[in-house]
Amino acid sequence: MADFEPKIVGFLCNWCSYAGADLAGVSRFQYPTNVRVIRVMCSARVDPSIIMEMFLQGADGVFVGGCHLGDCHYITGNYYTEKRMKLVRKLLERAGMSRQRFRLEWVSASEGVRFAGIMKDFAELIKEIGPSPVAGDNPDMAKMESLFIAKNILEDFRLRALINKQVQFIESGNVYGEKLAEEELDKILYDALSVEFDRAVILWKTKEEPLSVKSISEATNIPPGRVLNEIANLRRRDLIKLDRIEGQSPLYISQGFEV
Amino acid sequence: MEEEEYEPLVIAFCCNWCSYAGADLAGVSRFQYPPNIRVIRTMCSGMVHPNLVMDALTKGADGVIICGCHIGDCHYLEGNVITEKRADAIELMLEDFGLEPERFRLEWISASEGDKFARVMNEMVEAVKALGPSPYKM
Amino acid sequence: MVEKVGAVLVVGGGIAGMQASLDLADSGYKVYLLDKSPNIGGAMAQLDKTFPTNDCAMCIMAPKLVETGRHRNIELLTGASLEAVQGSPGNFLVTIKKTARKVDETRCTGCGMCTHFCPVEVPDEYNMGLVTRKAIYVKYPQAVPAVVSIDLEHCIGCGICEGQCEAEAIVYDQEEQMMDIEVGSIVVAPGFNLFDLARKPQYGYGVYPNVLSSLELERMLSATGPHAGMVLRPSDGELPRNMAFIQCVGSRDKQTGNTYCSSVCCMFSIKEAIIAKEHTPGLEAHIFFMDMRAYGKEFDEYYSRAEEEHGVKFTRGNRISMVEEDPVTHNLFITYVDGAELKVEEFDIVVLSVGTEAPVDTDKLRQVLGIDLNTHSFCETSIFDPLSTTKPGIYVCGAFSSPKDIPDSVAQASGAAALASSHISTERNKLVEIREFPPEKDISGEDSKIGVFICHCGINIGGVVDVPAVVEYAKTLPNVTYAEDNLYTCSQDTQSKIVETIKEHDLNRVIVASCTPRTHAPLFMNTIRDAGLNPYLFEMANIREHCSWVHSKEPEKATQKAKDLVRMAVAKAALLEPIPPIKISIGKSALIIGGGITGMTAALGIADQGFDAYLVEKKDELGGITRRIHFALTGEDVQARMNELIDKVKSNERVHVYTGAKIKDIEGFVGSFITTLEHEGEEKQIRHGVVLVATGGAELKPDEYLYGKDPRVVTQLEYEDMLANGGLKEDTKSVAMIQCVGSRNEERPYCSRICCTETIKNALKTKEMMPDANVYVFHRDMRTYGFREDYYLEAAEKGVVFVRYYPENPPKLTVNDGKLDLIAKDPFLDEEIVVNPDVVMLAVATLPNADNEELSTFLKIPLSKDKFFLEAHVKLRPVDFATEGVFLCGLAHSPKFVEECLAQASAAVSRATTILAQDELELEATKSFVVDEKCDGCAYCVDPCPYDAITLIEYMRDGTVKKTVDVDETACKGCGVCQATCPKDGIFVRGFTLGQINAMIEAALEVA
C-alpha cells in the first residue's frame, strides 16, 4: 500500500478552520496533498448524511473542522456539530467502517500549525489503515449497503429531531424547564439510532424479494426476535407488508424504502 | 390510450356498525388503498336492495361491494344472513346482465379489521382494473 | 337530614363503569366517571373476541364507548385518582386529583399528528409491549375521549408535538389539579389486575421467548394487534405448529396465595384456542387444566364445540409444574399425566392462562372509601347484598368484588346503578342538563337550500385534500346555496357560526364534509337543531377517514374523491325530509312476573325508584325456590332473610302483590302494556310501562340412580331439607354425592352452575354435624369458581373425598341385600372404588320454568335452545330483551346463585328505570315507513324482519279491501331488511330510502 494516496474531504468552517488553513498557507506550513477542502459557513452546515455520502462517493477519510466551543461565529453552531458527529461515529461503526476514517477537530484562525499537523496525522493514519472498503472498483457491497442505509436514516425525522434538541436540552432545558443529563440523552439517541438502523436494514433487505424473519435475521445478524418486533412496528406504519406465507414462514416485503 | 388510463369506480355499501367502522379504522391507522372507492353508508348490509347493486352496475359502476358484520355479529340480529342469501341472487343476475362475477363482492369486515378493509378494497380495485371498464360505461 | 345530591361518582371506566354510568345518566342523574387511565375502555378494549359467541369485542363495545363519551350527563375525569371521601349516603364530598395530561381536552381533536412526529418510542401497554407507541399517544385507535396525552415518564420535553399541533392543544405548563365534587352515592368499578407471571418462574415467562401470557396471545389474535391477527413465535417469527395452554397460572394456587379461581380463564383459553386455530392453518391446540369451569350460559356447548368441531385437545386433571426449553430451537417441553400415564410433549408456543387479582390500588381504595376488603384483597360483599360495600352509599360492581366475566360485570354494573340511585331518587333530573332547542321551522314546499361546511381538520384533511378547491366545487353543485371551509368544523366557535349561517342564508339542509358520522353526526345534528332545523336534514361526507388519511400519497386523486364524496352527499341531502320525532308516553309502573327472591328484590327496587310495582306470582305464596334453601356457604340465615324480604314486599305501599295469579295475556308495547290477570277468580287488567321477567326455575326430578325407587336417594334440595330438619339419621356413616345428574348431557347440554358449590356446602354441613361420617363427591369438574374455591379446599382438607368420573363411565348405583352399592372408576388411579352410602345426594339440573314458552309468545321474547330466556346480547345486554321495555333477571336467564340473581334483579330495575324515569320516550327516528300507494300487501317483508315489527293488515279503501303492511315503530330498529326485500318500492327506512341511496350512486357515477 505504499503507493496508496488516500482521498480525504475536509469541511472547514469559514470563520475559524478555513482561516486556520489559510494561515497554514500564509505561513507555508507543509502538509500532504490528499485533502480537498470544502468551505462551509459553519461546521453545523455539515449534515451528518453528507459525510455518509462522501464515503459512498469513494472518500477514504472525511474531516470536519470548526471553531473551538464557545467561539462559534454563530454562537452555538459547533455545539450542534459536536452532537451530530457523535452520531456519525456511531453509525460508521454500525456500518462496519473504521471510525478513524472520520475526524472532527476545532481549529481556530490562529492555529495554522495545528491545522497542518492535523492534516498530516490524518493523512498518515488513513494511509496506514488503507483504502476505504467501499472505494475503488471492488467495493464491499455489504458495507456499501450499510453506509447507504446509514445515510438514509440520518435523513429520518426522528433522529434529526432528537439530535437537534440535544444542545437546547443541555443548555436551556426542555419545555418543562428541566435540564437533562447528557448521558441520559445519549442513551435515548443511541437506542433510537440502533432501532432505526435495524428497521432500515430490514426494509432494505426486503425491498426486492419477500423474506421471512429467519432469513432476514441470517442476512443481517439482527436477532430474529428483534426482527419480528421491528416488522410489527414497521407494519403499523405501512412500511412493510405481509407478502405471503410459505410453510410456517410469513414472508414480508418492504413498501417504503425510498432510494 | 383510453385503456391505460382507466380508473375504475367501485361503490362500496358499508353497514354502519361494523364495516363502516372498519373503514374508519383503516383511516385512523392510515392504511392506504386506492381512491377508486365510494363508500355509501347503510344502517345494515341487509338494507341494500339487490336493485341498488344492479342499478349501480348498469349505470356504469365498474364494481360493487357490500360489506357487513361477520355472521353472528349483526347489530340487527341476522340482517347479514339475509344479505348473504341476496348475494347469491345478485350473482345470478350478473350473468343475465352479461357482467363478470368479479364485479360484485360480499365481504364481512368487523370494526377492528381496518387492515382487512384496506386489503379488500385493494383487491377489489385490482380485480376490476384487470377486467377493464364496465360494458355499461357510457 | 342531609341534603341529597342527584349525582353519582363512578370509579373506573371499564365496561362495568361505563354501563353503570350510562344507566345512571339515562335515568336522570349527573355522573362523574373517573378513570386513572387517560382513556376509558378498560380491559375489554384489549380483547379481540368474546366467548361464547366470538363476537368482535371492539364492534360491540365501540357504540357504548361513543355513547359514554358523548353523553351530556356524563363528565369524564380521566387520568384521575380518588384522594378523599367525606360525608354520608346522599351527600359525599369527594376530592379528586387529576394528573396533568399536558393537553387541553377541549381543543385536541385526536388527529394524531403529534404522535406521528414524537421522537420517543415506548412499549405499547395496550399491545402488551409487542409494539411501540409514542410518548404522546392515545391508548388505542377507538379510544374515548379521543384525546392524546403525554406520558410524562417518557416525554423528553422536546417540544415537537406543540409545533405539530394545529389545534394548539398542547399545554406544557398544565398542572396537576385537585378538585372537589359532590355526589349522592359512589359506584366502585376499578376492575382487576393481572397476576404477575414473574412470580411463577418455573414457567419461564420472560426467559423463554415462546412462553406467552394469554393477554399477549389475545393481542396477537387481534386485527389491530402487532401482527394483524397472525400468531407468531416470538423467537423466530414462524407460525406455530402447536400450542399449549397452561391453566390456573396464579389461580387456585397456594404457593402464590391466590387460592381462589379467576373464573374466566378456562373460557378465555378455549376462545383463544379456537381463534388461534382459525388464524393459523394446521395449528394444534392443547389445553392442560384441572377442572374445566365452563359454568356460564351456553359455555359448556362452546367447550364441546371446541373439542368436537375445532379439534382443540383437552387434558384434564393437570397442574403443570414447569416448562422446559430447548435453548437452540426455543421449543418448549411440558410433562403431564394422561390417565395413569406420564407424558412429555414438545410445543412451539406455550400460553400461560394468567389469573386475575384485586386491582393494584385496592388498598388505597379501602383507605379512601373506608370499605372492607376480603382475605384476597377484593371488595367485601355478602350474598344478600352482592353490590353493596361495607360502607353505606358506596356500591361495587365488576371484577373488584370477585373475578368475573363481562355479562356478569355488566349486570352488576346496572344493578349497582339502581342501588346507587335508589336513595337519591328524589333528586332525579335535578342536576342534569336538558338541552332546549328552538321550535322547528316548517320547510315543506321549500326548495332545497344546502349549506356545505368543509373541514381542514388542521392539516389532517387540508394537508392532503385541496379544501378550498372542494369548497369552490361545492358551490357549483345544484341546490347548494352556501359553502365554506373551516379549520375545525367541530370546534365550539364553528358551531355558533353554522347556526348563524343557516339563519343568514336561510339554509334548509346542511352537509359537513369532515370525519366519520359515527362519532360526529350527533354533534352537528344538534347544532342545526339550534338553528331551528330538523336534525335529520343533515348529511356528512367522510373526507378524512375515508379519504385524506387513506390516500395521503395521492393528493390530487384524494381531492377529486373528496369532491365526489361531497357531490354524493349533496345529491342525498337534496332528498332529505324532516323526520318527526317518535315519542311515546311512559306509564310509570312495572309488571314483575315471578315472586321468588329475584322478583321480590326487583319489585322493591322499582318501588325504591319511586314507581309502582305489580308483582305477580302464580303460587299462593311468595318466595319461590329459595324457600327450600336453608344454609349459605358464608353462614347467613337464608330463611330469616327471606322472611324479612317478604315482609318488606308486603308492607311497601308501592308494591302490589298478586299471589295465586295467572297471566292470561299481555298486550301493548314499551310505555303502555296492558296485562290481563286471573286473580282470586276475577279477571283483572293492569296497565304498566315495562315488564320484568323473573320466572325462576325448578329442580329436576331425575329418573336415574334409583331416584324415586329408593328413599335413600335424594336431590340436593331434599338433602338440604334433611340437614336442616333432622332428616339425616344419627348413625349415618357415609354419604355419597353425585354431580351433573341431568346436566351436561345430551338432553340438557348446559351446566347448572350452582350444584358443585351447593354440594360443597352440603358436604361441609354434613361434616360439621357428623364429623365421623364419610362424604364422597363423584364429579366431572368441580366448578367452584371465584372465592367458592376456598370452600372446595376446606372440604378437601376436612376429609371430603373427591372422585372424578367421565360421562362415558358414570358411577353405578345398585341395591344389594338392602345396602346401596356405589361403584365408580377413578380415572387417575385406574381403579374401581366401591362405597356403601347410607344416603345418596344427586346434584340435579336446574330446569327452566315450564311457563317460559307461553310467556315468550305473549311478550314476543325469544327462548334459548335450553328454554331459558334469551337476552338481547349475551355479553353486553344480559338483562335486556331485544323487545324494548321488557327485561329479565334471575333463573329465568340461566341457572345462577342467589347473589347473582339479586344482582340481575337490581340490574333489571336499573334498565327499566332508564325508561320509567322519562315522561316521554323519544325513539330513534330512523324507522321504516310504508308507502301505501305502492304496497300491495304481498307481505314479503313480514318474515325477514328481525324484530317482528311488520304485520299484514287490511282496510277498506274506496269500497274495496286494501291489503298493506303496518310497521310497529316501537319495535322497528331501522335495519332496512324490509326495504331491500320489497319488490314494489313500498317500504323504506327514513334517511336511507332507495331514492336517496340511488341519488348517491348516480352522483358517484356522474350520470345524474
Gross morphology of chain C: globular
How would you state the average pLDDT of chain C, rounded? Answer: 94
Binned strand content of chain C = 25-35%
Q: Strand tally of chain C, please?
A: 52
DSSP helix fraction of chain C: 25-40%
Question: What pattern of helices and strands is seen along the backbone of chain A?
Answer: EHEHEHEHHHHHHEE
Structural class of chain A: alpha/beta
**Helix segment tally of chain C:** 23
- Percent of residues in helices of chain A: 40-55%
Low-confidence residue ranges of chain C = none
**Beta strands of chain A, count:** 6
Q: Give the strand line-up of the largest sheet of chain C.
A: 5-2-1-13-24
Beta content of chain A comes to 5-15%
Structural class of chain C: alpha/beta
Low-confidence stretches of chain A: none
Oligomer: heterotrimer
Distance between the termini of chain C: 71 Å
Report the C-alpha radius of gyration of chain A, rounded. Answer: 21 Å
Radius of gyration of chain C: 31 Å
Strand order of the biggest β-sheet of chain A: 2-1-3-4
Could you characterize the architecture of this molecule?
The complex is a heterotrimer of chains A (259), B (138) and C (1008). Chain A has 259 residues and is of the alpha/beta class. Chain A contains nine helices and six strands. Chain A has a four-stranded parallel β-sheet, with helices on both faces. A two-stranded antiparallel sheet of chain A has the order 5-6. In chain A, 45% of the residues are buried. The mean pLDDT of chain B is 91. Chain B is globular. With 138 residues, chain B is an alpha/beta fold. In chain B, strands 2-1-3-4 form a four-stranded parallel β-sheet, sandwiched between helices. Chain B has four helices and four strands. In chain B, 40% of the residues lie in helices and 17% in strands. In chain C, the strands form 17 sheets. In chain C, strands 5-2-1-13-24 form a five-stranded parallel β-sheet, with helices on one face. In chain C, strands 15-22-16-17-18 form a five-stranded parallel β-sheet. A five-stranded parallel β-sheet of chain C has the order 32-31-30-36-47. In chain C, 25% of the residues lie in helices and 26% in strands. The model of chain C has no long low-confidence stretch (mean pLDDT 94). Chain C contains 23 helices and 52 strands. Chain C has 1008 residues and is an alpha/beta fold. Chain A binds chain B through residues 236-238, and chain B through 29-32.
